[in-house]
Amino acid sequence: MAPLVLRTVAETAAWVDSLRRSGRRLALVPTMGFLHEGHVSLMREGRRRADVVAASIFVNPTQFGPKEDLSRYPRDLEGDLAKCASAGVEAVFAPVPAEVYPPGYQTYVDVEQVSQGLCGARRPGHFRGVATVVTKLLCLFKPQLALFGEKDYQQLQVIRALERDLNLGVEIIGMPTVREADGLAMSSRNAYLSPEDRQRALALSRGLAAAQALCRSGTRETPALVAAVRRELEAAGLREDYVELVDATSLTPLPAVSPGQTARLLVAAFVGSTRLIDNQPIGG
Predict the structure, then answer these.
(1) Is 1 annotated as a binding residue?
(2) Which of 22, 66, 78, 269 could bridge to 238 as Cys pair (CB 3.0-4.6 Å)?
């Protein structure tokens, strides 16, 4: 069955009120659309954990910088709705930007610490936009749980922090990155890649796997683990944005992976003009 498409805040609030009166448990999957199997896996997991799943499809302008790809970000609402239907989503919030940020809008959410460094340093204002739109969605839908992919790992930590700090009462669930058969992390921006660049992009996941193998063999110092990723990026001719080993929760840089510790190794690189990110747990 096709999901109900909600275009305004008012009709979404009315739908949510009706759902709450029925006592059913709601899972929310916020997205920017151009859905792939990673998004669909979140929706299926939401169905497993809740009675009803809702999704949002909204290319959020406040998380794009002035020279980023807002205008050309891939969009396919008809295809997205079909994927939502296949995953059992009951309602999709698909507003225009003016519905989310009407004239006179002036309130933003800034998560100060985990938004620093990594993508936060390279994309000023990005996480302010992410935190604002996610807060608005959580307040509008009032779900019992919301699901996000671990591919956007810093984003996930930002969302966990805002939910905790603002006492929103929503269980934030992070789900493992969904990958293509060859290891490439699924991303809507993969659509930008030429066939040649698509093969070169595998350097991100290969580099992370090489670092994991090195750590398992006993090398736990950050410079050596980071160098393993950089070798793969350089061999594929990719331009590094960052490669960093950080604490899995606070995202503070680590000099090494301590025994028994599970850290996170994150990478961002440009494949041609397309910026891709990936990450893996390491250690433990």
Answers:
(1) no
(2) 269
